[in-house]
Amino acid sequence: MLNIVLFGPPGAGKGTQSEKLVEAFKLVHLSTGDIFRYNIKNNTELGLLAKSYMDKGNLVPDEVTINMLEAEVKKYPEAKGFIFDGFPRTTAQAIALDNFLESMGTSISLMLALQVDEEELIKRLLLRGQDSGRADDTDESIIRNRINVYNEQTAVAADFYNKQGKFHSINGVGSKEEIFDRLSSVIVEKNR
Ligand code: AMP
User: Fold this and answer.
1) For the segment 125-182, what is each residue's pLDDT rounded down to a tens digit?
2) Which of 75, 78, 118, 156 is the most exposed place for a label (fewest CB within 10 A)?
């Protein structure tokens, strides 16, 4: 299996690049943010819980997120591989994902980390907020909190993959095609 963690701060382009990568490499795209938003839209209990954290730009608790992610993975027994977008966001989630994948006889192949500087992220998110309908993209103080949460709680998860020799830093500034080419060449090289 080809299992990729697409990593990076909010606004780095994970969603956009995931769409292109799933098509090119025939993978299943799992975005925990999208799954939470789907639950919010459908007024589920999980959605209600997630919303209270997401509206402030804080992380949904690990246990809830991990259980949800594992249930999603199990829905695709025929998958050739997954792109994990927005997960893991803490070291605890990374450890849980490793253990879970091991129990399924597979593992993470690589982490691709998109690098974009902070002012560019804020610019992109405010622009996205104009038509994404996402409340957490319209308020600059919530955007800044999401970036702080990334720096304080999420960025460390990269060390976990770095120690396993799976971490790859990718310049996330450029055209969609340029960034896609950078990501795909690492995948192709690693998959050889
Ligand atoms: P995203 O769509 O990836 O930007 O995620 C939007 C929001 O969903 C985040 O700000 C968090 O509140 C929540 N969220 C998404 N993925 C996770 C995760 N892996 N762990 C905790 N919270 C998450």
Assistant:
1) 999 999 888 889 999 999 999 999 999 999 999 999 999 999 999 999 999 999 999 9
2) 78
Decide if 69 is inside a domain.
yes
How far, in Å, is the centroid of ligand 1 from the Cα of 183? 22
Q: Do residues 112 and 186 lie in contact, with contact meaning Cβ atoms separated by under 8 Å?
A: yes
| Closest-CA residue to 65 (of 109, 104, 25, 32) | 32
176 noted as active-site residue: no
Q: What's the CA gap between 33 and 35, in Å, rounded?
A: 5
Show the ligand 1 pocket: residues with CB < 6 angstroms: 10, 32-33, 36, 53-54, 57-60, 65, 86-87, 89, 93, 136, 146
Q: Is the pTM of this model over 0.90?
A: yes
The string of pLDDT tens digits covering residues 11-58 is 999 999 999 999 999 999 999 999 999 999 999 999 999 999 999 999
Residue 119, domain member (yes or no): yes
* Domain count for the chain: 1
Q: Which domain holds residue 151?
A: 2-187
Residue nearest to atom 11 of ligand 1 (CA): 59
